[in-house]
Every structure is written in structure tokens, then in C-alpha cells.
Design brief:
Number of domains: 1
Strand content: under 5%
Keywords: Membrane, Transmembrane, Transmembrane helix
Protein name: ATP synthase F0
Structural class: mainly alpha
Order of helices and strands: HHHHHHHHHHHH
Shape: globular
Radius of gyration: 20 Å
Largest sheet: none
Distance between the termini: 32 Å
Organism: Lasiosphaeris hirsuta
Number of helices: 12
């Protein structure tokens, strides 16, 4: 068992060898740059993509296949731009002079690297209209990030938001978005009624992490993505329920996230929180506490 753990990149370790740290630095930076380059390249106007008519941009497909989960390109693009920026901050902590900080950053490194690779693969498949395969990659990444969350959910904000909650929030919403595009006649009445129901899973998903882990970063992330969905749905059809549901979810998640975040920023627990911690047990430490 020890020999298996020694070669398993996803095994939990209290510390990292110098060689492992160097490997994490190289692979994390390389996979992150790949994710950025692919995302930015396929966000640009289609005329920059050559003469391959089977390849287009992310947002061209978003509006070409209108569905109950179509998003606003500006809000979602700003979400991703912000996420890439805070991910740069996370990567810088791999180069910290503090051993504890480096070990904490490396602890989520394998899952973060895999997330970058899966995200890049999703973009490449999505813009080529391979929607079934792109959906499969999103589902695989969802399991990757969910496993990361439940194994490492007590790290500080500089790790948790860029490497864990931000990517997981996006992947959860993207599964619905990509899945809706994948379906035939996704703009039809039947699928829109299904969208009216399944949109509430965004609220349930966010509320779970806020209630159980006091994770306001997940709540705020899903609130932003719900706003993106709401704006796009409003622009498409004013007389409809989907944009009303989206803005309702956005508001509820924002309020309850703020109710958790404000006491946390003030160094206090939320008044209804009964979560206890044990000294020296990092996994039971308050979620998102600063180092």
C-alpha cells in the first residue's frame, strides 16, 4: 500500500520531496498556460481560426444553439478572466519560501493539473461541435473536482477559490449548458420545461456547500454564473420563467453567501454555525481561513 501511495499523484501527503515540488511547479504552470491559451484562442472572432469550417468560437456556438442554459458571453468571460488571475496567485504560492505554503499548494496540484488538461480538451471538442464527447470530459472533470473538494476542503482562500470551488462551480453549470446544446431541438418547449426544473439544482448545489462547509466562494461563483444565465435568457425571451428563476437563484445565493462571508472576514463564525475544530487537525480547520 505504501508503494502504491508513493507513485499515486492523488494520494494525500503531509509533505513533498524537493523533486515533487519541482515537478508540480512545471506541470502546474504548463497546464495552466495551456488552459489559458486554448480558452482565449477559441474566444476570439472566428476569422482568426483559419479555414476549417468545423471549428468555431465558444460564444458563436453558445448563441447558435439557444437553450434554457445559454449564458451571457460578457459575464462568463469576466468570470473566467478573474478565475485565471486568481489561479496565477495560487501558482505563485508554489514558489513561496514557506514550506507549509508550498506543501498546501502541492496538495491540490494533481487535481488542478488534471482540471486544466480536461478543460483544454473540453474547449477543443466543444468548438468542433463534438458535444457528446465534450460533455463526457465535463462529467469526468466534475468527478475530479468533487473528489478534490471532499478530500481538501479546508485550505485557505488563495488555494480553495482558484483550484477548487471556482473550477467546480463552472464545471457544474457547464454540464447543463453543454448538455442542453447536445440535445436535439434544445430550444423546444419540452426541453425548456426541463430547464425550468433543473436550473434549481444550481441553488441546491450552492446551498449544500454553504450550509455544510460554509463555503461562500462556491456561493458567490454560482451566483455570478446564475446572473450570466439570467441576462442571456432575458435578452432572448422577456416573457419566460427561466430568467426569473436565474435571477432568483442569483439573489438567494448572493445573500446567503454574504451572510457567511461577512462573519468570516470579521474573524467570527456565522451565528448558526456549530462546527467545531480540533487543534492540530487541518481537515477540521475552519474552511477558507487565511494562513
Amino acid at each position: 500500500m505504501d508503494s502504491l501511495n508513493s507513485i499515486n499523484p492523488f494520494a494525500k501527503r503531509e509533505s513533498q520531496s524537493p523533486g515533487s515540488v519541482i515537478t508540480y511547479k512545471i506541470l502546474t504552470l504548463a497546464s495552466w498556460l495551456l488552459s489559458i491559451i486554448v480558452s482565449f484562442y477559441y474566444t476570439f472572432d472566428g476569422r482568426y481560426l483559419g479555414h476549417d469550417h468545423h471549428v468555431t468560437t465558444i460564444w458563436h456556438l453558445n448563441y447558435a444553439f439557444y437553450s434554457g442554459f445559454t449564458q451571457n458571453y460578457m459575464i462568463t468571460s469576466l468570470f473566467w478572466l478573474t478565475l485565471f488571475i486568481v489561479q496565477a496567485g495560487y501558482i505563485l504560492h508554489l514558489f513561496s519560501t514557506s514550506v507549509d505554503t508550498v506543501n498546501a499548494a502541492c496538495a491540490v496540484g494533481s487535481h488542478f493539473i488534471l482540471n486544466n488538461l480536461l478543460h483544454s480538451a473540453w474547449v477543443l471538442l466543444f468548438v468542433r461541435s463534438h458535444f457528446i464527447w465534450s460533455e463526457i470530459f465535463l462529467v469526468v472533470n466534475f468527478f475530479n473536482l468533487t473528489a478534490l473538494y471532499f478530500r481538501h476542503n479546508a485550505y485557505a482562500r488563495f488555494i480553495h477559490l482558484p483550484a477548487v470551488s471556482g473550477p467546480l462551480a463552472w464545471t457544474f453549470v457547464a454540464i447543463y449548458w453543454n448538455g442542453a446544446i447536445m440535445l436535439p431541438h434544445q430550444h423546444g418547449l419540452v426541453w425548456r420545461l426541463f430547464a425550468n426544473v433543473f436550473i434549481w439544482s444550481i441553488l441546491a448545489f450552492g446551498a449544500f456547500f454553504i450550509a455544510v462547509y460554509k463555503d461562500y466562494t462556491m456561493g458567490f461563483s454560482l451566483s455570478i454564473l446564475s446572473a450570466s444565465l439570467g441576462v442571456a435568457q432575458f435578452h432572448r425571451q422577456v416573457v419566460a420563467f427561466q430568467w426569473i428563476f436565474a435571477f432568483t437563484i442569483m439573489a438567494v445565493l448572493f445573500v446567503i453567501s454574504g451572510a457567511v462571508a461577512v462573519p468570516a472576514w470579521a474573524g467570527k463564525d456565522a451565528p448558526w454555525s456549530r462546527r467545531q475544530t480540533r487543534n492540530g487537525d487541518a481537515e477540521q480547520a475552519p474552511l477558507l481561513a487565511d494562513p
